[in-house]
Amino acid sequence: MPALAWASETPLYQSAPAWVSAAPALPAGPVDELPPLVLLDFQKRIEGDKLTSYVHQRTRIASAEMLSQAATLTLPWAPDKGDLIVHGLTILRDGQTIDLLAKGQRFTVLRREQALEQRELTGILTATLAVEGLEVGDLLDLRFSVTGRDPALGGRVQDVVPLPALPLRIGAGRVRYLWSNDSAPKYKLLADGVTATPVRKGDTTELSFALPLAKPKDMPEDAPARYRHPPLIEVASFADWTDVSRTFAPLYKTDGLIAPGSALANEVAAIEKAEATPLGRAQRALELVQGKIRYLAVGMDGGNYLPQAPAKTWEVRYGDCKAKTLMLLAMLHAMGIEAEPVVANVGLGDAVPERLPSAAAFNHVFVRATIGGEVLWLDGTGSNARLPDIRDTPGVGYVLPIRAAGATPMRIETHPNARPIASVTIDADESGAVDLPSPVEVTMVTHGQMAAQLRAAKSQVGPKEQHELISTILQQAVGEGQFAEGTITPDSASGDVVVRAKGVVNTSWSVEDRRRKRSLGGALGELNFTPDRSRPDWSSIPVAAPPPFGVERHVKVKLPDGGRGFTLEGAPDADQRLAGYVVKRTTRLSGGTMTMDERFDAAGTEVPAARIAVERDAVATAKANIPRVVAPVDTPRRWTLDDATLAKSSQVQAIRAIFGKAIAADPEEMSGYQSRAAFESGIGNYRAALADLDKVIAKEPSVDLYLQRSYAQFNLGDPTKALADAERARALDPAANGAIAQVAQTRAETGDLRGAVALLDERIALGGESRPFLRQMKASVLGEFGNPQEAVAFYDTLIAEKPGSPTLLNGRCWTKGTRNIMLDTALKDCTKAIELSDDTLAALDSRALVWYRMGRYPEALADLDTVLAANPDMAASRYVRAAVLKAMQRDGEAAGELALARRMNPTIDRQYARYGFKM
């Protein structure tokens, strides 16, 4: 192992080296017009295996905010590699130069490991200085150097500098490298629009170029990392990749690293005794390194590249990727398993072949093992790997094997992982009605890193936090809802962690083509593959791929009516590759139950530019063919079930039981009460909803909660209490449109039309974005409770200001129809609203009322049937349909419609009595 020569642990104060040239000239003009970064000059000299990096930075303190940021300087360096040398620190003010070093200011060294919270022990020291006397308008000028020599590089040198580019403004900037003519390191500029040619000056070669660089070319966000890396310059004295590989091979020699009879030797012997096969032994060794050695990056004492010895790693039970790799290699070699280290770049692995050969191109190391001719990639910094996972492939792009004979970068060909990160089983009872919430029993079996994270979380948090964690995880898997009886159960033998809970989640049924349908989209439904390659210079850029991962779902849904009339549409089964993903699915309807088993994997493979259009079409087609369960037209709905049927429904019973358990588990958490109130209100049990709303409002009042309680009070037949809650909502937010509308409507409902109109006029007079809504609300209130001619006249004014508004035309038609006036023009208003509107249901409903007033019952029935076919939930349409059927002497049908309308809206008789209806 190379010997370490420690430099100073405190900053040195010396003049700048003689090879440093004068800074580039600043642009002419007033100082206060310069950008805040006035000067940024990087000068670097390579001398054998030593790199000296000189920095000259001048900053204009343009504001008080900048003053607070710039007044404290921090300079990090690694004392095991070299020195921090401060050359100058001055303030330039109105032609004066204030030398802070001459005045005795000095940097103080912080020894705290600043990256320890990221599990890094870097050995980096930080010199800090609070600049005394700095003022807004000053120029702060700092010059310093950092020297570096890394014995692990075997006499070689390397450097990587991120390059500032536009739109960042710099008054003057430069990068300048110098080296002796006989050393000739290689360099590479990974940046757009910059060229630099080395120039010989005597016995020295100089390479320089100005900063900032031109703005990098725009790249699509989904381009691979090699297209999107920041501008860089790399300089290194490695001959090629083979030289890099050979240089580090001695650091990973394992001969004699596990002493006979040592604790680590005993671990190896135990593995060999327990496992008969090389594959099983490799897995057990990997499990030991992952599970018994915690990760801690060690960058001190030369640790940037020098791995910690396995015996030391086992003793202290921590290590970084280098230490874990060397320990795993030593164990595998001791068991006769072929293995070698490979270095990788996590994040820029696909760009490795374009990089300049150097160790700086990599930030990670792990093991490449070969067993029975099969290549395995074993990463000691991973977690929870088990035998089924041992053939998984990391999505890190290119790696460089570390060999005594040298090697060149090789690409890891990825494939889907053997196991998903999570396998979710969902058992849902939707047997009552398709528009009720879904009670579910959920089991999530997690593997690998996800399981390790859950195991750690369970050990670190209390029961309340565990419940919150379970809810968060399961809401991502099955949808938003309330969960109860949640458990997190680790299995040390398998490494899995199982999450179980019961929950109530929002319904997955929606209306499409006038039918209730339940999409089974899952991960495929969330897949968006819409790459933009419209620009000519983007046309050849592939689409990046996430690293391999998989998710699995097993869904079982109990359907209403024993599944009678339910069908499947779309493609029930699938086995296809789509844009770098693999989808496998089977879906069945049988015995009143829908079952689906699905596996969705990212394979970790890029989509070539030539296949983007094909894959985009394939993804769109696959998403269009996602299976959907289609309910029959007459499927039970919550409003078709009477109270007794609802009470006996296993779906409703499960919902109520889960809400009860969720609330009992944490009575001070209000979300359970709120969710239960919404459910009970949705099935017409306003009395039960009221009790929960009282509980929540007492602790966490809000505009929405007061309005919900107002709605419940109104439906319970108490408009006075409803008005009081609406007023409370408005007191919390006087400008809330919902509260204003509720107060105005309820005031009018309770006989205070004057007060309702006064409130609306007051808010209308204030103007603003809400004015159109409030004016329309005023017209509606006048039309329902006031003088209908006055209301129509007000609508005339509004329509004159906004002709062709289907909403206003429908409002005027509705007022004429409900108040039974001007029916001829009412019909014209409704018909025009239908012609102009994208959503015609409200206008069709209004026109049906006008047809009814005119005694044209078949036309009224036709419009109402159209409305209810599209939206069966419209209580008003059902009520008018009952009146139409009654007028047509179809009393039996009328009675059925009337019962449904009243179940949907308990106050509908009171509303339509104002319009002269007597049912």
Give a topology summary.
Blueprint: E1 12-13, E2 37-47, E3 50-60, H1 64-70, E4 72-77, E5 84-93, E6 96-99, E7 108-110, E8 120-121, E9 125-130, E10 139-148, E11 158-162, E12 172-180, E13 186-190, E14 199-201, E15 204-211, E16 232-236, H2 241-248, H3 263-274, H4 278-292, E17 294-295, E18 297-298, H5 310-316, E19 318-319, H6 321-334, E20 338-344, E21 364-371, E22 374-378, E23 398-401, E24 410-411, E25 422-429, E26 438-446, H7 448-460, H8 463-478, E27 481-490, E28 497-505, E29 509-512, E30 515-519, H9 522-526, E31 549-558, E32 567-569, E33 574-578, E34 581-590, E35 593-602, H10 612-624, E36 628-630, H11 643-648, H12 650-665, H13 671-682, H14 686-699, H15 703-715, H16 719-732, H17 737-749, H18 753-765, H19 771-785, H20 788-801, H21 806-818, H22 823-836, H23 841-853, H24 857-870, H25 875-887, H26 891-904, H27 908-913
Helix pairs in contact: 4-6, 5-6, 12-13, 13-14, 14-15, 15-16, 16-17, 17-18, 17-19, 18-19, 19-20, 19-21, 20-21, 21-22, 21-23, 22-23, 23-24, 23-25, 24-25, 25-26
